[in-house]
Amino acid sequence: MADDIMTLKEVAGYLKLAEKTAYRLAADGKLPGFKVGGSWRFRREDMERWIADKKKEAGGQQD
Q1: What 8-state DSSP symbol labels residue 2?
Q2: Is 23 in contact with 35 (CB distance < 8 Å)?
Q3: Domain assignment present for 63
Q4: Does residue 43 lie within any of the structural domains?
């Protein structure tokens, strides 16, 4: 269950992004996240769905 919620640092690593880039995307509403006490958090399920949606938009195939 603890792996269901990811920190900004974990999401940046998962997506192979700089933390600053992940923060900017989250702040701009482009990554599906939410704030808890001023810190960004992300549900793994939401991130996987976001990736699948981006692949569709780019014309890629889903796994």
Answers
A1: G
A2: no
A3: no
A4: yes
CATH of residue 16's domain is 3.90.105
Looking at the domain assignment, is residue 53 inside a domain? yes
Q: Which two tokens stand for residue 20?
A: 């600053």
In the numeric block, which tokens belong to residue 39? 């810190």
CB 41 within 8 A of CB 22: no
Q: What is the pTM of this model?
A: 0.83
8, 21 in Cβ contact below 8 A?
no
Return the structure tokens found at 56.
């569709």
- What per-residue confidence (pLDDT) applies to 41? 97
Looking at the domain assignment, is residue 62 inside a domain? no
- What's the pLDDT tens digit per position in 14-52? 999 999 999 999 999 999 999 999 999 999 999 999 999
